Every structure is written in structure tokens, then in C-alpha cells.
């Protein structure tokens, strides 16, 4: 899927640029945006190391276990069959807590940690499992209870009550999460998991 | 509101460290062990990010993004989304900084307390950069076949957008 999207975005972009005479801007994008990605990873590497380190401390101290037990009524619904006391569920719970608190910088490393734990449980390398898909879908939906960046920008733009949109945000977020979880559950049944029989 | 936010992070870090100390964990040694894993993860997500951000950059710079958002106007009308937020709906799942730039634009051209301004704000608050998340998370563990992840995630985004408009209509009127 990503293969087609990657090619389509670049090729379609180049064709449009050809028709609209915007080749110069496209060349600049080709030259500069790959560097921007490296800059982004460099910035991210610091928080990544910090949170993976802190996460390890929390794990060794048993804090992860406590948090994952607190979230288990919800996580068990989304991830049936996943060991509720296992390291994968622990990492998933830490990621969800960070997302709820709006700690995006912490949520990503914690989430990558969870992906690695889920990958250890997978018998099909290179193919996403249902748990992985569910977890990624949860992370593509916004679980943030207090979107501070949006509030800040609204305040700067002169809003009378920057956070008056909160109930609407929660409603839209919940709708998005519910639809995402249902789609992940439903589509998981219809997408082929692997071609194990095709191997000689 | 804003100042409370400054307390969350230090509070969590202190809780982690105190908990570790109380349980007799060799805090710094364990921290280093985890941080080293963080470093290798960061290196592993780099290639997918370079690919994705280049593709998004070309798509935006070429004007293809504007073309697409123009072409999808009938779909926006059908879903009840104001056409002013259409570029945001298209860019938000793809690029965090791009979505943010368009959002600022909308706030400048419409009041943040107008219908369009509120819908855009709710859209920003209730969705995430889907493609970035998928590329980074799957890139980190070498998943090539993402199966149903993208359709499910984009379905969730679409629901978020439609409900943004509905929720603002419901809570504030037009």
C-alpha cells in the first residue's frame, strides 16, 4: 500500500508541476525535504533516548505493570488475546497514557517500544498483525484530552474562549477512535494475513 | 491551563525516578540501557521518514495538493464540511507541519470563533498525522505489509473530520 502511495505522490506531483510550470519548486522540495526529515529525526533522537531510558526504569520498578492493570478494562477490549501482564501490553498502556496526557514527544518512543514487543510476538516477519494494526490505528487517532497547541494558536488568533471547542473535540475524537477500532476489527478479518502455504 | 501543562512532564519524570529508587532499581544503569535502544530505534525510522517527507514535499510544491482539494469540493459539500477546511482535511493526515501551516492560515483568514475557524480547530484537535505515524511505527520494526492499517486509519480520520463539522454545528450553530 505504502509502495503505491509513495510513487503516486511523487509521480503525480511531477506531472502536475510539468503542466503548471512549477518544476523549480519541485526540484527544491526534492533537494530540501529529505534533509528536513534528517533534522526531524535528530531532534527526535534526544526525546527518544530519554523516554526509552525512563520507560526501562518504570518497567524494572514495576510501574508499567500498575498502569497497564489500570487501563486493562479498555485495552483488553481492543487487544483480545494479548497477555494482560506481558511487556507488549505494558508498553501499549504506557503509550496510551502518554497520548491521553498530551505528551506527544513521549508517546512516540513508548509506542515504538510497544511495536517492538508486538513484533516479538509475531510469527510473520514483515507482515502487520491484527494487534499491530489496532495499535497503529489508535495512535493515528488523537487521544489527547487537552489539545494545548490548538488552544494556544486560537488564543494568539484572538479567540474569546480558546478552549470552548473542547466538548466538540472530545466528541469528534471519540467518533474517530470508535470508527477506527471498529474498522480495524472488521477489516482484520478480510485482509490476508500471510501466504504461509505458498512457501515451498 | 497553559501553566498546568508545564507541571505534567516534571511530575511524571519525578514519579518514574522516585518509583525506581524506592524499588531498588539501579536507575542510571537501567536508563542507559533503555536510551541505547532509543538510539537504534531513531536510526531505524530515518529511511521511512526521508521517503515520506520527500513525497509530501513534492506533492505540495507541485500544486497537486491544491488541485486535489479543488477537485474534492463536491465530496466536501456532501459530507457537510465547509470547503475552506478541505486543504486541511487533505494535508492533516499526511504532514504535521503542513497541516499546522494551513490551520494558521485558516485562523488568520477567518476568526477563530467563526464556524470555519471552529471546525478547523476541532479537526486539528481530534486527528493525528496518520501517514507519519504509520511510516514511523512500521518502519521501526521492518513491516512491509501493513494490511488493513491504512484504510482503517483513514476511515477514522474521515469520521473525525465529519464529526468535527457536526459537533461544531451541534454545540455552536452555524
Query: What's the order of the H and E elements of chain A?
Result: HHHHHHHHH
Low-confidence stretches of chain B: none
Report how far the terminal alpha carbons of chain A are from each other. 26 Å
Helix/strand-derived class of chain A? Answer: mainly alpha
Strand content of chain B: under 5%
Judged by helices, strands and strand pairing, the structural class of chain B is mainly alpha
Mean model confidence by pLDDT of chain B: 88
Sequence of secondary-structure elements of chain B: HHHHHHHHH
Strand content of chain A: under 5%
Helical element count of chain A? 9
| Number of extended strands of chain A | 0
Number of strands of chain B: 0
Biggest interface pair, counts: A-B, 107 and 105 residues
Main beta-sheet strand count, sense and barrel state of chain A: none
Instruction: Please compute the radius of gyration of chain B using only Cα atoms.
Output: 20 Å
From the spread of the alpha carbons, the general shape of chain A counts as globular
Q: What share of residues of chain B is helical?
A: over 70%
Any idea what the radius of gyration of chain A is?
20 Å
Taking all residues together, what is the mean pLDDT of chain A? 87
Domains of chain A, number: 1
Number of domains of chain B: 1
Set down the secondary structure blueprint.
The complex is a heterodimer of chains A (200) and B (174).
Chain A: H1 2-20, H2 23-61, H3 63-70, H4 72-78, H5 87-100, H6 104-121, H7 130-140, H8 148-156, H9 166-190
Chain B: H1 2-22, H2 27-61, H3 64-71, H4 73-79, H5 86-91, H6 96-109, H7 115-126, H8 130-140, H9 149-172
Helix pairs in contact in B: 2-8, 6-7, 7-9
